[in-house]
Amino acid sequence: MAVFSRGFGSRRRESDPELPPGQYLTEDFPVLSAGPTPRIDTADWSFSITTESGQVTTWSWDQLMALPIEDVHTDIHCVTRWSKLGTTWRGVSLDTLFADIDTSDAYTMVESYGGYTTNVPLEDLLDGKAWIAFEFEGEPLDPEHGGPARLLVPHLYFWKSAKWVHGIRMHSDDDPGFWEQNGYNMYGDPWKEQRYW
Ligand SMILES: Nc1nc2c(c(=O)[nH]1)N[C@H]1C(S)=C(S)[C@@H](COP(=O)(O)O)O[C@H]1N2
Ligand SMILES: [Mo]
């Protein structure tokens, strides 16, 4: 693991081309949750995609684990201004989960155990841009960070990466999720600083 002195860190902070505007680097992994941490046993866990026709496709934990698993190296950026560069995750690509889903809707509502929701355009979940992640830095994802599994959409601010993910519902319109109803941007591109309304 790389260790940086504070001096190096602060020089890097200003000049790093990998750091979006207004962000600073952190070596810790802050926990940001709007409510209590749900505890879901993998034996009870499921993930579903629900389309506009009412068709529901559900995966159990074992079914998820039987799908192709990908290693993901990526930077993450929280709207509260911390960023982590070069994080390592394992998960299943949303391309795999959407492969046989028949939908004409352009938007999704991501739904979590515990009631959290966030809206993401479908195209931002496809083409290698999003995963259901269940490992972080080689370890099972901590419950505080969304374990057993969370959405990982690293090109958007991290509030879009719903912890304790339970399902995705297709929407014809871009309806606001939890934080989006409370002043956060509908899209959340860190490079354009789309933080709030
Ligand atoms: N279910 C759920 N997912 C969530 C949140 C939450 O409160 N509940 N917070 C979001 C926000 S605002 C951020 S910044 C990240 C924080 O993830 P972390 O706690 O693993 O750092 O999770 C996002 N996903
Ligand atoms: Mo956040």
Automatic annotation (TrEMBL):
<dbReference type="InterPro" id="IPR000572">
    <property type="entry name" value="OxRdtase_Mopterin-bd_dom"/>
</dbReference>
<protein>
    <submittedName>
        <fullName>DMSO/TMAO reductase YedYZ, molybdopterin-dependent catalytic subunit</fullName>
    </submittedName>
</protein>
<dbReference type="Pfam" id="PF00174">
    <property type="entry name" value="Oxidored_molyb"/>
</dbReference>
<feature type="domain" description="Oxidoreductase molybdopterin-binding">
    <location>
        <begin position="35"/>
        <end position="179"/>
    </location>
</feature>
<feature type="region of interest" description="Disordered">
    <location>
        <begin position="1"/>
        <end position="25"/>
    </location>
</feature>
<dbReference type="InterPro" id="IPR036374">
    <property type="entry name" value="OxRdtase_Mopterin-bd_sf"/>
</dbReference>
